[in-house]
């Protein structure tokens, strides 16, 4: 894609995703030096006047004060329409000017129905389809969705949105790895004991039971976000960070990735029981409104993977994510192998050191063993640390900048989406077969008893 988007149409504009993430992300973009004007059209089934829609947009934009954001909000419009109805979709697209991006802020099942409706009439030239994850519910449905999408528009006009790719700290991985000689040769099997990618939250459902109970921690976080972080952590140095090179490198390393035990039975899953988090009393997950206990949905998942290539063979990659835990932790932790030999006479702390890359807070920490004060033969462990720089845009702002500029670098390519489902297929199969028990943990705890801390 090379042409800039003139009109952004948001399907599902009355929903939580648009109000909480998408519109504020657009506001951060419009308030930045990268901003350009765009026509904004909101679409949903519910009744809403243009004045009510303008108020909704203005409220979502309130965190960013900019003249351009105010103009976009004032000139935006709302259309009441059923996005699954072909006639309504034609009417909506007819209201747009210039090149159009159609943003699906919709549940996956509705997205498929919209795609079916789009296939029944001629689409505007250059139309870009922007879809939120999850991209399918397993490998079969992901492949089917991709086949349906490329019949509508070419792959270069598909923008699969995973906002994790817009997080500044995730993008910092590129500079950290490929601009520092000290790190790049260090990150390989001869030096690394294991890699852990952890996204633990204190938040519980926060009103998302309708979606979350059908997804769970594995599909909501590991299958998408954390596997993409793994790809950036483990990929080979690309020739450039242009879309083709960067996404090609991510696809290559994911093709080499598989479940550690091949059958998925060493994975772990659990859901929270009643407890207290940050002073808030939480009911058990199965007692939450909108949750079907018969689904056996996990709120904490852990999977160990391996990357079968020259650089990483034999190194376990542990991916973990959970809700309603006692502390928030968003980190990439590289545990280095211990030194092969310590000269006699040196004494003090022993054991492997770590490189910790924090997503939130955005920081870098590296353990070092140095001679302590006083006795020069007494070792002590110290930490070199620095804050990582945050970008001017929010994660959604960064993703929307790519969408509106026609730059697919931060979108998920179709084959990458399929590889993520392929990697976890043995785990999903083992869980459906009941061969992996569903453990419990008290809300506010570190996880189930007997689980080691990730």
Give the C-level CATH assignment of the largest domain.
Alpha Beta
The tally of beta strands, per DSSP, is 18
Q: How much beta, percentage-wise?
A: 15-25%
Q: Count the DSSP helices.
A: 11
Largest sheet: 10 strands, mixed
Q: Could you explain the architecture of this structure?
A:
With 454 residues, the protein is of the alpha/beta class. The chain folds into two domains: 126 residues, NAD(P)-binding Rossmann-like Domain (Rossmann fold); 248 residues, Dihydrodipicolinate Reductase, domain 2 (2-Layer Sandwich). Strands 7, 8, 9, 12, 13, 14, 15, 16, 17 and 18 form a ten-stranded mixed β-sheet that branches. A six-stranded parallel β-sheet has the order 3-2-1-4-5-6. It has a two-stranded antiparallel sheet with strand order 10-11. Helix 2 packs antiparallel against helix 3. It is globular and about 80 Å long.
Produce the secondary structure layout.
Blueprint: E1 7-11, H1 16-30, E2 39-44, H2 50-60, H3 67-75, E3 77-80, H4 86-94, E4 100-104, H5 108-118, E5 128-132, H6 139-152, E6 158-161, H7 168-178, E7 192-200, H8 209-234, H9 243-255, E8 257-259, E9 268-273, E10 275-277, E11 280-282, E12 300-307, E13 316-322, E14 329-336, E15 354-360, E16 363-371, E17 379-387, H10 395-405, H11 414-433, E18 438-442
Parallel strand pairs: 1-2, 1-4, 2-3, 4-5, 5-6, 7-13, 9-18
Antiparallel strand pairs: 7-14, 8-12, 9-12, 10-11, 12-13, 14-15, 15-16, 16-17
Helix pairs in contact: 1-10, 2-3, 5-6, 6-11, 8-9, 8-11, 9-11
């Amino acid at each position: 894609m090379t042409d800039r988007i003139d009109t952004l149409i948001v399907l599902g504009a009355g929903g939580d995703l648009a109000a909480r993430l998408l519109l504020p992300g657009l506001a951060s973009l419009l308030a930045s030096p990268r901003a350009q004007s765009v026509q904004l059209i909101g679409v949903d089934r519910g009744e809403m006047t243009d004045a009510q829609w303008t108020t909704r947009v203005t409220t979502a934009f309130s965190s960013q004060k900019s003249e351009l954001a105010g103009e976009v909000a004032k000139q935006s419009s709302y259309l009441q329409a059923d996005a699954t109805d072909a006639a309504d979709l034609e009417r909506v697209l007819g209201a747009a000017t210039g090149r159009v991006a159609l943003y699906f802020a919709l549940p996956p099942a509705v997205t498929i129905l919209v795609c079916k409706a789009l296939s029944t009439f001629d689409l505007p030239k250059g139309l870009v389809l922007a879809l939120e994850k999850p991209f399918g519910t397993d490998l079969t449905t992901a492949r089917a969705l991709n086949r349906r999408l490329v019949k509508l528009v070419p792959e270069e006009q598909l923008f699969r949105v995973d906002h994790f790719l817009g997080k500044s700290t995730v993008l910092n991985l590129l500079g950290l790895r490929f601009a520092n000689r000290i790190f790049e040769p260090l990150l390989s099997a001869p030096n690394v004991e294991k890699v852990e990618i952890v996204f633990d939250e204190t938040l519980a459902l926060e009103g998302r039971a309708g979606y979350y109970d059908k997804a769970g921690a594995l599909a909501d976080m590991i299958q998408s976000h954390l596997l993409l972080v793994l790809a950036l952590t483990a990929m080979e140095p690309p020739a450039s960070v242009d879309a083709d090179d960067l996404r090609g490198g991510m696809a290559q390393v994911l093709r080499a990735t598989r479940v550690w035990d091949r059958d998925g039975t060493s994975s772990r899953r659990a859901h929270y029981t009643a407890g207290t988090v940050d002073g808030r009393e939480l009911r058990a997950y199965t007692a939450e409104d909108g949750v079907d206990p018969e689904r056996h949905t996990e709120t904490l998942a852990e999977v160990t993977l391996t990357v079968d290539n020259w650089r990483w063979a034999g190194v376990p990659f542990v991916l973990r994510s959970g809700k309603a835990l006692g502390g928030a932790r968003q980190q990439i932790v590289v545990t280095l192998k211990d030194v092969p030999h310590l000269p006699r006479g040196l004494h003090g702390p022993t054991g492997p050191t770590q490189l910790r890359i924090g997503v939130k807070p955005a920081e870098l920490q590296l353990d070092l063993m140095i001679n302590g004060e006083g006795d020069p033969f007494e070792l002590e462990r110290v930490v070199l640390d620095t804050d990582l720089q945050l970008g001017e845009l929010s994660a959604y702002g960064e993703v929307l900048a790519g969408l509106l500029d026609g730059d697919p670098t931060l979108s998920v390519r179709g084959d990458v989406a399929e590889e993520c489902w392929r990697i976890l297929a043995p785990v999903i199969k083992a869980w459906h077969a009941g061969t992996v028990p569903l453990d419990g943990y008290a809300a506010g705890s570190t996880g189930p008893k007997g689980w080691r801390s990730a």
